[in-house]
Design a protein that fits this description.
alpha+beta; about 15% strand; about 220 residues; two-stranded antiparallel sheet; two-stranded antiparallel ribbon; single chain
């Protein structure tokens, strides 16, 4: 509603839809929800974080955390943190798997040979994403938002797709409650753009509630 205006152009009244803007009280409320919510979840979930970290270290060779460059709000690159769910040297195997599957954008593979046995369990219940709470506290991410894209993905974005970068990427979002890894590139992009165009605090709270149900059901998690 607030973004729709009627303006005269060459004597004709035309309908204009303004680009989404995030400022003032709404932006402050979202930032407060993010930092307070993430801090509370870290405090409550610290025993789980510790147990998972020890399990990752003891069950496979490599570091406990997987750190990857992702693109945040306004195109700023940040380092996203996750628990490592793949074998050591998994990145070196990526191009070969992409060639075999023909999936070049947003690569997902149901039976990815790089994923460790523990990693499959962590992914099923999204426990591998818990360290991203620290990204939220730092201000790189939000609790709810578009899926955090890779630098290589953003480099081929069309003009409309870059609207995803108007807000911080989220730990969860419409893609998380609508199929997760079962979604293709176009479906994920459509959901993310709809979120950016229609964001609200009430919508964020609803997505957080639905995320719990999606995690429990494990639909599309691999």
């Amino acid at each position: 509603g607030p973004r729709v205006h009627i303006r005269p152009v060459a004597g004709l009244p035309l309908l204009h839809v303004e680009k989404p803007a995030y400022r003032g009280a709404s932006r402050w409320a979202k930032g407060t929800l993010d930092r307070v919510g993430a801090s509370a979840l870290i405090a409550v979930g610290s025993p789980i974080l510790l147990v998972v970290a020890i399990a990752v270290k003891l069950t496979s060779r490599g570091s406990v955390f997987f750190v990857q460059e992702r693109v945040g709000r306004d195109g700023e690159v940040f380092k996203m943190i996750k628990f490592r769910t793949m074998v050591h040297g998994a990145d070196a195997m990526l191009e070969e798997l992409k060639a075999d599957t023909g999936n070049l954008m947003m690569f997902k593979m149901r039976n990815d040979p790089r994923v460790t046995p523990l990693g499959r369990t962590l992914r099923r219940f999204s426990l591998d994403e818990l360290p991203q709470l620290f990204n939220v506290v730092k201000g790189d991410m939000s609790l709810v938002g578009p899926r955090p894209p890779l630098v290589s993905e953003v480099s081929v974005y069309a003009a409309d797709a870059r609207r995803r970068l108007l807000v911080r990427p989220g730990i969860t979002g419409p893609w998380q409650i609508s199929g997760r890894s079962d979604l293709n590139w176009e479906e994920t992009m459509r959901l993310d753009l709809y979120y950016v165009e229609n964001w609200s605090i009430v919508g964020d709270l609803l997505i957080l509630w639905k995320t719990l149900r999606a995690v429990v059901s494990s639909t599309g998690a691999y």
